[in-house]
Design goal:
34% of the residues lie in helices and 15% in strands. It contains 3 helices and 4 strands, in the order ααββαββ. Strands 1-2-3-4 form a 4-stranded parallel beta sheet, with no helix packed on it. Helix 3 links the parallel strand 2 and strand 3. Helix 1 crosses helix 2. The longest helix has 17 residues. The protein starts with 5 loop residues before the first helix and ends in a 7-residue tail after the last strand.
């Protein structure tokens, strides 16, 4: 479980909205806050296992701890038409993953890594 303060969660909420294509004012300070908190988590979290499954953008930078195991990034956010500045920033991490899983085919974008798209049947 990652840790973060109020500023970090405000930034990740902006990122979330921007990834959905909503207009957001994203400053250089926002990227700095994200990276400062990510560095603290990278230093403070012990990660082990043959497969590491990271869920959504908040902990995406933990990939810096990759050490010979497989890493999968799981995304439930609709990134089909994201703010390209935020998407480009996250792609620097995402391209280091072995694969990505999207919760809906329409939420994905072309990636240089293997992708899995979940298509669940509708139930009543």
């Amino acid at each position: 479980m990652i840790k973060g303060g109020e500023q970090f969660y405000e930034v990740t909420k902006k990122f979330h909205n921007a990834l959905h294509g909503r207009p957001e004012e994203i400053s250089e300070r926002d990227f700095d806050v994200f990276m400062e908190t990510s560095r603290e988590n990278i230093e403070g979290i012990n990660i082990y296992g043959d497969i590491v499954f990271i869920h959504d953008p908040q902990p995406i930078a933990l990939i810096k701890k990759k050490a010979g195991n497989k890493w999968i990034w799981r995304c439930h956010v609709d990134v089909s038409d994201p703010n390209l500045r935020v998407w480009g920033f996250l792609m620097d991490f995402l391209t280091q993953y072995d694969s990505a899983v999207f919760s809906a085919p329409g939420f994905s974008r072309p990636l240089p890594i293997r992708q899995f798209l979940i298509s669940l049947p509708l139930t009543r």
